[in-house]
């Protein structure tokens, strides 16, 4: 039983946690691809920037003498989401829109976003330094333990993880409502589906582009903040997260928001299953098999975790290039 | 005065001129049919009216307003709708969502227009929750048609609405065109099935090589032996 709890904590929960982060990031990447037709490489650093902004707002709240049982960074996250959304629109105006208007090819847009990501990294390091910080200023991180009747080992969840799950669930429902019930949301799907017909129909592409950056920017900020709350705020956060997010986007089907969510969780779970030490789960079965399992039995060592999204990506591109939800082909 | 009048239109794609000095006029409530061989510039003609091309000469006047060079996004406001030849539905949107998108530029209540479209195309009502991409070619054509009707257009531009359809569906579509025209909508339609199309046309325009070749009433064009020999396959 203890082994099962350990499996649940370290394989399933940790996979769902990182999967939720990937999903929140991948929704933005897939929407941006669907509407603007390019891979937004600056998404990872937009997440880092969002996390920094949340921290700044949290410090502001603290200096105003505000206290709360829930981490201040969580309350700082909402103004930071708005700020990140605005910055995303500003970047579009400054960098991407002039290229679009000049009829630039997608590869040019991708290079521009690489430029934006390098610029963001520089700015973040100048103002934020290079060391890791805790998002918990003031109060310590609350830890919750759930005891099962037959096990001595508890299921462990921290405050940011609970916030993450609730936030992701709310986001998924809100996004579904937006895309299927609102005029702008349907227009967004229409533009992603058939941009020429959308402009013939008189859909204002500008509004759709703004909505895309608002959703993408706000969710990137949330993902960066919640990840940093769970672990720590590192200026190089984007380095480890960009590839799995792109893998999740492609696995889910490019341009498919629901696919991005499914892809995010799939990549997250695959990662945590791959680095999980299976011998802990198998050891109780040793008498049954009559063999001794080695003490460490992970599919890949933790240091090579980044390999997993690569493998998933290659498999998907070979066997189902449109992804789970039939997205656009690259 | 004509509802739509095109005078000496010269237009093309970028630097490449396709249409040269083309004239065309339609009165309110008429069906105008554009026929001609492949590559004659029929689709180009509709695209030029709908503000999708560079117009280098001539003018397009609609309902007393010069609309030359007005971009397609703005033409819904002038109550002109266009159904392109290909990719004319939002495949991943449901039938009803396609129709709603047609009314995107309107901020008023459009439920009565939706009902009207479902009256014209009763099949669409049964399929309204189905993605348009899952429909047959003929049904898709009806969705495209319905989408265009959502702005309650004064003029509707149809590019080969019967292309690739079975003869049965073809007559259904022609039938709908007549029905819509009877409600007062002026129709400008490009057609490959020239004989059937000219038979329902008030005016016919034969284009060849990007220029006017013959212009007359639909019936006169059908009766004209030269037109019959060169363009209607004998
Ligand atoms: N997007 C485009 N860019 C450049 N040239 C084009 C484009 N579309 C069409 N043309 C050219 O314009 C000419 C007229 O094409 P158009 O599509 O108007 O013909 P059409 O009369 O509609 O023919 P069809 O019966 O095959 O539909 C052709 O020579 C074609 O090559
Ligand atoms: Mg054509």
From TrEMBL, chain A:
Give its localization: Cell membrane
- Pfam families reported for this sequence: BPD_transp_2
- Keyword Membrane attributed: yes
State whether keyword Cell membrane applies.
Answer: yes
Keywords, comma-separated and alphabetical: Amino-acid transport, Cell inner membrane, Cell membrane, Membrane, Transmembrane, Transmembrane helix, Transport
GO MF terms here are: L-isoleucine transmembrane transporter activity; L-leucine transmembrane transporter activity; L-phenylalanine transmembrane transporter activity; L-valine transmembrane transporter activity
Q: Its domain of life?
A: Bacteria
- Which GO terms fall under biological process for this protein? D-alanine transmembrane transport; L-alanine transport; L-isoleucine import across plasma membrane
An annotated GO cellular component of this protein is: plasma membrane
Residue ranges spanning the membrane: these are 12-36, 48-66, 72-95, 107-127, 162-179, 208-231, 237-254, 261-282, 302-319
PANTHER family found in the cross-reference section: BRANCHED-CHAIN AMINO ACID TRANSPORT SYSTEM PERMEASE PROTEIN LIVH (PTHR11795), HIGH-AFFINITY BRANCHED-CHAIN AMINO ACID TRANSPORT SYSTEM PERMEASE PROTEIN LIVH (PTHR11795:SF371)
Which family is this sequence assigned to?
Answer: Belongs to the binding-protein-dependent transport system permease family. LivHM subfamily.
Its recorded name reads Branched-chain amino acid ABC transporter permease
Which organism is this protein's natural source? Answer: Pararhizobium mangrovi
Provide the organism lineage as a comma list: Bacteria, Pseudomonadati, Pseudomonadota, Alphaproteobacteria, Hyphomicrobiales
Automatic annotation (TrEMBL), chain B:
Q: Which UniProt keywords apply?
A: Amino-acid transport, ATP-binding, Nucleotide-binding, Transport
Transmembrane region positions? none
Q: Which Pfam families match?
A: ABC_tran
Which parts form a coiled-coil structure per UniProt? none
- Which InterPro entries does this UniProt record tie to the protein? AAA+_ATPase, ABC_transporter-like_ATP-bd, ABC_transporter-like_CS, BCAA_Transport_ATP-bd_LivF, P-loop_NTPase
Q: What terms describe the molecular function in GO for this protein? A: ATP binding; ATP hydrolysis activity; branched-chain amino acid transmembrane transporter activity
| Residues covered by the ABC transporter domain | 4-234
What the entry lists under CDD domains is as follows: ABC_TM1139_LivF_branched (cd03224)
Q: Family membership, please give it.
A: Belongs to the ABC transporter superfamily.
Q: Which protein are we looking at? A: ABC transporter ATP-binding protein
Instruction: Specify the species.
Output: Pararhizobium mangrovi
């Amino acid at each position: 039983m203890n082994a099962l709890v350990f499996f649940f904590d370290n394989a399933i929960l940790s996979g769902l946690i990182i999967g939720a982060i990937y999903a929140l990031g991948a929704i933005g990447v897939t929407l941006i691809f669907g509407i603007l037709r390019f891979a937004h490489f600056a998404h990872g650093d937009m997440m880092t920037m969002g996390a920094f902004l949340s921290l700044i707002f949290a410090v502001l709240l603290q200096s105003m003498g505000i206290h709360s049982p829930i981490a201040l960074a969580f309350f700082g996250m909402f103004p930071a989401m708005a700020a990140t959304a605005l910055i995303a629109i500003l970047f579009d105006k400054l960098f991407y829109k002039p290229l679009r208007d000049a009829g630039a090819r997608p590869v040019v847009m991708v290079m521009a976003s690489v430029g934006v990501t390098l610029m963001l990294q520089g700015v973040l390091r100048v103002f934020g330094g290079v060391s890791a910080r805790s998002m918990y200023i003031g109060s310590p991180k609350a830890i919750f333990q759930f005891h099962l009747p037959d096990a001595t080992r508890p299921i462990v969840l921290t405050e940011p993880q609970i916030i993450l799950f609730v936030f992701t669930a709310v986001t998924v429902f809100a996004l579904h409502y937006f895309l299927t019930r609102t005029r702008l949301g349907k227009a967004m799907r229409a533009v992603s589906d058939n941009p020429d017909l959308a402009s013939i129909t008189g859909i204002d592409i500008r509004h759709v582009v703004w909505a895309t950056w608002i959703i993408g920017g706000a969710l990137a900020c949330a993902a960066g903040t919640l990840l940093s709350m769970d672990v720590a705020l590192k200026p190089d956060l984007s380095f480890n997260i960009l590839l799995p997010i792109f893998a999740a986007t492609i696995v889910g089907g490019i341009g498919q928001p629901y696919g991005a969510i499914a892809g995010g969780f799939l990549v997250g779970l695959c990662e945590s299953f791959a680095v999980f030490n299976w011998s802990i789960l198998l050891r109780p079965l040793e008498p049954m098999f009559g063999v001794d399992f080695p003490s460490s039995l992970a599919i890949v060592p933790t240091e090579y975790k980044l390999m997993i999204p690569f493998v998933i990506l290659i498999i998907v591109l070979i066997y189902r290039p449109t992804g789970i939800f039939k997205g656009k082909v690259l | 005065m004509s509802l739509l009048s095109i005078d000496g239109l010269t237009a093309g794609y970028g630097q490449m001129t396709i249409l040269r000095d083309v004239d065309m006029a339609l009165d309110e409530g008429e069906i105008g049919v554009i026929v001609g061989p492949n590559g004659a510039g029929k689709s180009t003609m509709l695209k030029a009216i709908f503000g999708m091309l560079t117009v280098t000469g001539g003018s397009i006047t609609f309902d007393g307003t010069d609309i030359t060079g007005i971009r397609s996004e703005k033409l819904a406001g002038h109550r002109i709708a266009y159904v392109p030849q290909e990719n004319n539905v939002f495949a991943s949107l449901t039938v009803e969502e396609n129709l709603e998108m047609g009314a995107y530029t309107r901020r008023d209540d459009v439920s009565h227009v939706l009902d009207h479209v479902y009256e014209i195309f009763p099949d669409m009502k049964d399929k309204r929750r189905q993605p348009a991409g899952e429909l047959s070619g003929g049904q898709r054509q009806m969705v495209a048609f319905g989408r265009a009707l959502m702005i309650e257009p004064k003029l509707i531009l149809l590019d080969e609405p019967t292309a690739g359809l079975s003869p049965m569906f073809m007559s259904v579509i022609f039938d709908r065109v007549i029905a819509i025209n009877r409600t007062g909508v002026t129709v400008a339609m490009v057609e490959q099935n020239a004989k059937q199309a000219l038979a329902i046309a008030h005016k016919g325009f034969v284009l060849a090589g990007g220029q006017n070749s013959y212009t007359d009433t639909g019936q006169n064009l059908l009766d004209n032996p030269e037109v019959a020999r060169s363009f209607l396959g004998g």
